[in-house]
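User: Hi! I'm a student and our assignment asks us to look at how structure tokens line up with a sequence. Could you show me two examples?

Assistant: Happy to help. In each example below, the sequence comes first and the structure tokens follow. Example one:
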Amino acid sequence: MNKIWKNLICAAILSFLLIGSASAAWEGIVPCFGVGEGRCTVCHFLVLLKNILDFLVKMVMPPLAGLMFLVGGIMMIAGGASEENYKKGKDIMKNALIGVVIVLASWAIVNTLIVTFGRAVEGFTPLSWWKVKCQ
């Protein structure tokens, strides 16, 4: 029975993330369409990398982390007399926090690398280290 609930929760999360968020946000992720005639450049590729990273950090990570904190908290509260459930809930919350820190640190590192190495790309204008724009 426990495995069925885990599969249902995973399916619900994926449905929410893929259908709800991706369909509305996909048009803003890809900065240009088509190859040739100067439409897509290396600068647009850097913008695409930044957009994908921002999508993961802003659209995927918060609901997923919130759900994990919720599940961990419910397990801790509902565990009550069961030391095992309390420990599982605490581990879930600790791992969710570690995951959030890793995602945010990777966002800072990748955006810094994009801006630093992107300065050599023609048409690439880093407005701030987290904002990228092609001319």
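Example two works the same way, sequence first and then tokens:
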Amino acid sequence: MPELTQNTLIKPHFPQSEASKEQSAKTRAIIRRTLQQAADLQQLSFEAAMAIKNADSPAKLAETQARAKAVYDATKSWDISVDRVRIFRGKPMPGSLRHDAKSAKPKKAKPTTFTEE
């Protein structure tokens, strides 16, 4: 058995079950896919905006505006659907959970010192 020295790090070992590891891998894959989709839609939106900026004729401008509107609509529907999936999974919005005043621990009173003058 190796000798433990002061510099040896001791880490607790909590073995995960195979089901837990598989669920973690699935969750990470879903998050990764969602982030990739968001990045792709961001790039598409940027390209649509730049096409409007670079339109050189009124006909071209009208066409690029129509495409940009379609990109906007698609992005908005994607955002709504991702939000619906989050709700169905029972995940709250970040920062939406607040502690109740009843369940919060009372603040400890600071000790006061009395001095005689």
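Here is something you could point out in your write-up. The helical segments are 18-53, 58-88.
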